[in-house]
Amino acid sequence: MSSRGFFIVLEGPEASGKSTLLQPLAALMRDSKVDPVVVREPGGTRAAEIARQALLDPEHPVGPLAELFLYLAARADLVETVILPALERGRVVLSDRFALSTEAYQMAGRGLDPMLVRAGNQAATHGLIPDLTIILDLPPELGQARQIAAGKRQDRLDRESMDFHGRVVDYYLAIRGEKVRHLDARLSPDRLLQAAWAEVRAAAPEMFPVSVG
Hints:
Blueprint: E1 6-11, H1 18-31, E2 37-40, H2 46-56, H3 64-88, E3 92-96, H4 99-109, H5 114-125, E4 132-137, H6 140-150, H7 162-174, E5 180-184, H8 189-203
Parallel strand pairs: 1-3, 1-4, 2-3, 4-5
Helix pairs in contact: 1-8, 2-3, 3-5, 4-5, 4-7
C-alpha cells in the first residue's frame, strides 16, 4: 500500500459493469469512514471531458494515432490536477479505467506500436501504478447483448467489430500481476460488488478494517 494514499482502478471491456460497480463500491468505502475521490477516464477535468466528447462521438471518426493522443492528453490532465494531488493528501482514489485501457484498446485493439503506447502512458501517468486493479472479465458477445438489452446508444467504440472487442477482451484476460485481480462480470451486481469489496479490503486491510454488507 502506498503511504501517500491508495489508488484503485476498475478495468474491463464494454458493458462489463465498471460504471455500475463504481458508486456502490465507493459507498461501501464511505461506510468504512473512507471518502474516496471518484474519477472516470476519459474525463474528470474540463479538458478531459472535451477529449471524451471527441473520442466517443460516433458521428466524428478519429484515426488510431489521434485517438491515442487524445486519451493520453485526457489522462495527463486528470493525473496532474486530480489523482496525484489526492494521493499526496493521503486520499483513496477510485477510477473507472486508467492506463491499462489504452493498452487493451489502442495497443491490442487498434494494433498500435506497443513501445509507443507504453511510452505515452508512462509520460501521461508520471509512472503512477495503481495499488489495486480489478478487471471485470466478460465475453464480447455478452457485452454486446447487454448493451442491446439496455437500449444503450452506441458510442464510437461500441460500434467497433466483434474482432476488435475480442482482441480487447483477450488482452485483459492475459493480464496478471501482484496488484491485479480478475472478477467474473457475469455475477449479479450484488455478488460482484461483494467480490470487489473483498478484494479492496484484502489489498488494504489497515484502511478498510470494518466488514460491511
